[in-house]
UniProtKB/TrEMBL annotation:
Record domain Glycosyltransferase 2-like: where: 15-148
Native source organism of the sequence: marine gamma proteobacterium HTCC2143
Keyword Ligase (UniProt): no
PANTHER family membership: GLYCOSYL TRANSFERASE (PTHR43179:SF10), RHAMNOSYLTRANSFERASE WBBL (PTHR43179)
A GO molecular function held by the record: transferase activity
TM segment ranges: none
Listed name of the protein: Putative glycosyl transferase WbiF
InterPro entries xref list: Glyco_trans_2-like, Nucleotide-diphossugar_trans
Keywords: Transferase
Length: 292
């Protein structure tokens, strides 16, 4: 009698690049490869492919990226690296959507090209998914490049809170310390129930693929910034989430206020969309009217 083995769960990874630092990206991919090898050595979960979506960077960068991906394909033949090169910059979320909707996976790992995954973290997060079928999103503990915990996940964030944490001097922030502590108090290792207003950083998100497909992936309302917060809230409309202390990444990015005028314009445009004009916000207003 032949005993059928349980079907392996499958994972797809996507990263989006736009003139990203090649050296940092190389280290990101090395940490990812190490995690993939660890997970696959345990046997119950496999990886379909790693998508790298190149979002219309300059030609010099593209040549460097093609060389980097070729090296990884040559050195790690067991892992499929798929490079998608775009003829226009379609934005962070839409670039990830290309990978999300080409995949037939159980889990989808969304990654920035400027982070390191700590040893064993990905296996820890996937194990958490395997034990909790009602969770749609697992967010990591994020550490900044100085080795300090980064505040990247928030509770019930208002426009005032955005400007308070982004622009206010420390003296003003001290006056609102209780409020800041409240928005920073996203529970760790506790299930965040559906309907909560928690938002998570998109630098690293492990999602159940069915949850991403159910909500249509990242919203087309955003080019850059707030697409991760919007995705968080839409997943939490249907599923639960968790911040997993055993899933850790070191993030070398962020700091919108230091990135120049163009990024400020993107940031402010997305902020207005997020709070007033997104499809999610229009749906929320419609439901609130129907409840009257």
């Amino acid at each position: 009698m032949t005993v059928s083995r349980p079907k392996k769960k499958r994972v797809v990874v996507s990263l989006v690049t736009f003139n990203s630092d090649i050296g940092v990206l190389r280290n990101t991919l090395l940490s990812l490869v190490r995690e993939i090898q660890t997970v696959e050595s345990l046997g119950s979960i496999g990886f379909d492919r790693v998508f790298i979506v190149e979002n219309f960077s300059n030609l010099y960068y593209r040549e460097k990226l093609h060389g980097l991906v070729s090296n990884f394909r040559r050195n790690y033949e067991a892992i499929t690296f798929t490079l998608i090169t775009l003829d226009e910059n379609i934005g962070f979320g839409q670039a990830h959507n290309l990978a999300i909707f080409q995949s037939q996976s159980d889990y989808h790992l969304i990654l920035n090209p400027d982070l390191l995954i700590q040893c064993g973290s990905l296996n820890n997060a996937l194990s958490n998914f395997e034990k909790n079928s009602n969770i749609g999103l697992i967010a990591p503990m994020i550490i900044d490049e100085r080795g300090s915990p980064a505040r990247s996940h928030y509770n019930d964030l208002s426009i005032f809170d955005i400007f308070l944490r982004s622009l206010a001097p420390q003296s003003i922030q001290n006056l609102f310390s209780r409020r800041i502590n409240k928005i920073n108090s996203v529970p760790v290792d506790e299930t965040i129930n559906s309907g909560k207003k928690a938002v998570f950083s998109g630098c690293a998100m492990l999602c159940r693929s069915s949850a991403l497909v159910q909500i249509g992936g990242f919203s087309k309302d955003y080019f850059l910034y707030f697409e991760d917060y919007d995705l968080s809230l839409r997943i939490l409309q249907h599923h639960k989430a968790i911040v997993d202390s055993n899933f850790k990444v070191i993030h070398y990015g962020g700091e919108t206020t230091k990135k120049g005028l163009r990024h400020w314009i993107y940031f402010l445009r997305s902020l207005v969309t997020f709070y007033f004009f997104s499809a999610r916000k229009k749906t929320e207003r419609l439901y609130s009217k129907n409840d009257l």
